[in-house]
Design a protein that fits this description.
The protein has ten helices and 17 strands. The chain has about 325 residues and is of the alpha/beta class.
């Protein structure tokens, strides 16, 4: 028994000696690469200017004139089809705070544009609850999902232009915005003219991107799929500014106290609800719903809830009909 204990003790001491020897001969650690060599990952599908970005230079029509709501009927073919399906399918954004975003606490889509969708659904079904199928789409997909009839409507800070009217139909104007710039608070830039040679971000196929790409100051246009990507790139110093509608920029500034919306509006952006071009009856019906929101206080209540505190008082834009 005593001899066994001596053998065990000797073995243990041998193991300790081996470990000590190994520790003593360990190689020196290698210095990691300098931190300055690291780079933030870029968002997916970052590109450059897009010449077809919304066709904002096409002035061949009056883009604000829509079909009159006179004769609108819940029994018209397009509306009846939606009602029979039991759901209104709406293309929306889920990344633009204040207008179309997913509430992280509830998982629900919320915002001014989402309110407009719910008003249309409530008019058709009596209540929006359970009767809306939201489909999150990128800015560059707005025309295509309407042309392919993948959605009934698109409500996504969607500026009406003559170029777009060649492919899709629009409701009357339900909101008027203006393009500005978003920059770090330390920046003195107030317009694109102050950003010569600088990288300025906007989404693909947007009127904002067209403005950046054609501006006389020649900023470098950077295009992404979603506005949230622009904010991330600004935070990571991969772009010098973001330029788009003040409505979208206000949502970014509300999320990040280190940036600011700067300057005066450079454009006038008339938002409309996108509708397939071959469904004029749905255009008339949606316009009748928008008329109601303007007169019964629904528009004003939604504006005050989401936008008023950040962009000041406003009234519903008056419609213009063909």
């Amino acid at each position: 028994m005593i001899r066994s204990r001596h053998l065990f003790r000797a073995a243990a001491l041998a193991v300790v000696a081996v470990l000590a020897s190994a520790c003593g001969s360990a190689p020196q650690p290698i210095d990691p690469a300098p931190v300055s060599d690291a780079a933030w990952p870029m968002p997916a599908d970052v590109g450059g200017p897009d010449a077809a970005a919304g066709g904002s230079t096409d002035n061949s029509c009056d883009p604000t004139a829509s079909l009159s709501p006179a004769g609108a009927s819940a029994g018209s073919p397009s509306v009846a089809k939606i009602k029979a399906r039991g759901k209104l399918i709406a293309g929306v954004d889920q990344t633009t705070y204040l207008f179309g975003f997913r509430n992280p606490k509830t998982g629900n889509l919320e915002g001014f544009d989402i309110d407009m969708v719910n008003q249309i659904a409530a008019a058709i079904f009596g209540s929006a609850a359970g009767h809306v199928q939201f489909r999150a789409i990128a800015s560059s997909q707005r025309e295509q999902v309407l042309k392919d009839h993948q959605v009934d409507i698109v409500v996504r800070t969607y500026s009406i232009t003559c170029a777009r009217l060649k492919d899709v139909a629009f409701s009357s104007v339900y909101y008027v915005a203006g393009q500005k710039i978003l920059v770090p608070k330390a920046s003195n830039a107030e317009s694109l003219s102050d950003l010569k040679g600088k990288r300025v971000c906007a989404t693909k196929q947007s009127t904002s991107l067209a403005k950046i790409a054609t501006d006389p100051a020649h900023p470098t246009a950077v295009s992404v799929d979603n506005w949230s990507d622009c904010l991330i790139m600004l935070q990571q110093h991969q772009v010098d500014a973001v330029s788009t509608d003040d409505t979208i920029l206000a949502g970014m500034a509300a999320q990040d106290p280190t940036v600011k919306v700067s300057g005066a509006p450079m454009t006038t952006e008339n938002y409309g609800i996108g509708i397939p071009k071959d469904q004029p009856d749905l255009v008339r019906y949606v316009n009748s719903v928008l008329e109601t929101t303007r007169t019964n206080g629904t528009w004003a209540a939604s504006y005050q809830k989401w936008v008023g505190a950040r962009l000041g008082p406003a009234t519903p834009p008056q419609p213009k009909y063909k």
